[in-house]
Amino acid sequence: MTLTIRKAVESDTSALSRICLLTADAGSSAESLHDYGELPGLVYAVPYVKLPTTWGFVLVDESDEAVGYILGSRDTRAYEEHAAQHWWPNLAEKYPPSTAVKPADERYMKLLRNMHVAPEANIAFAAAHLHIDILSEYQKQGWGRKLIETAVEYLKGEQVEGEGIWLGMDPRNTEARKFYERLGFKDIEGAPVGNMGIKLADFVCRK
Asked: Where's the N-acetyltransferase domain (predicted)?
């Protein structure tokens, strides 16, 4: 099967949401944890084709269906501010915690009302952040590195404050940590466990 990488667009929304759900439990599927399976994507994927300061690339199959993505913002604090005003309030109204039966749904619904923001240590490291997920059947084929290479090359032309990029990951996902470490990501000093970053100039592209 031939896979390619292209820019993410708003019409990818449903695919982004599906990928996010299928990788939301520390890299495994969270389908069984949710009655509202769209919630993980509404928090961690869909905003990046809807809101300002964002960027994204998708890994697509021969039918142009996304099977993986790398998404992020050039300016995390600006992204957070816009989302706080224009994204989370509408979702909070749509998903009241009183409608939740499963704990994971309730946790996300409460998060919509009190969304976490990036640690100051992350922002001091760099303004840009990313999220990356690939469906399991397309992992361990080099596509994760290629997606990050694509993002790094893009961000080098965007004058990102701090000239780096960071991510937050579930500490339970030890395989993901090994992957990021192989690429040169390191723990961010002063940030909670699971926050890792790399300066754009330090990332070694293989293109």
From this structure: 3-207
pLDDT (tens digit, 9 = 90+) per residue, 149-187? 999 999 999 999 999 999 999 998 999 999 999 999 999
Whole domain around residue 168: which residue ranges? 4-202
Residue 207 lies in a domain: no
> For residue 188, which amino acid is it?
I
d(CA 40, CA 24): 7
pLDDT at 207: 56
Confidence (pTM): 0.95
CA nearest to 72, candidates 50, 47, 55 = 55
Sign of the torsion formed by the C-alpha atoms of 39, 193, 130 and 77? positive
**AA letter at 10:** E
Which residues have C-beta within 8 Å of that of residue 152, sequence separation ≥ 6? 165, 200, 203, 205
Structure confidence by residue, pLDDT tens digits, 177-187? 999 999 999 99
